[in-house]
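Entry 14. Structure prediction run on the chain below.
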Amino acid sequence: MSAVLEKVRAVLPGGGIDDIDPVAELARLHSRFIEIENANERLLSSLKSVHERERAAYRAFNAACERDDPQVIETALREWLVLAPQHEFAEREYAAAHAMKNFGSVMTKFKSEHPNAKEVLLRVCELRLAQAREQAGVVLGEERARLIPEGFSEQEIRGSALSKRATGRVRTLETIQRRIANEPLELTWKIFAPQLLN
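Output returned:
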């Protein structure tokens, strides 16, 4: 692995990875992205809970109004009136938080905290691509050693299941690399960060 890492360092702009492990950095950034997403989901869940409690209090008030007990009606009304302003606030905040979620606020916050996220994602992709190319070369060499004595042609060797799988991984990573380099982070992070960590 260190030989592959050195090859990637030699290929990268500036000649290095700034003495950090790009995979560990990607794992750290991905973990932070998940934290931001989860915080937003917790906020939405909490605001929705306020809404549900207010609706339950309103239903309890309506049910109390059907009874002929002023004390029960007053208690239910008091409970509902305490929650009604909270509900209005929570409803506005929920709408705003939900709109921000839909319009990419999680990614915006993530990018503001980690402006180098795309570079890290690209570095890890390049590392994985170098590893896949090296592995494809090893697999092709092993397939040649195994199949040439049996009279298989180069085309048949390259068409073997093991060779195809290894070159398929290289092509997949080349496509991922192109997409990361050419597309905005909003379109690539959630898809490729977890994939490149595995």
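The radius of gyration is 28 Å.
Filed with the rest of this week's runs.
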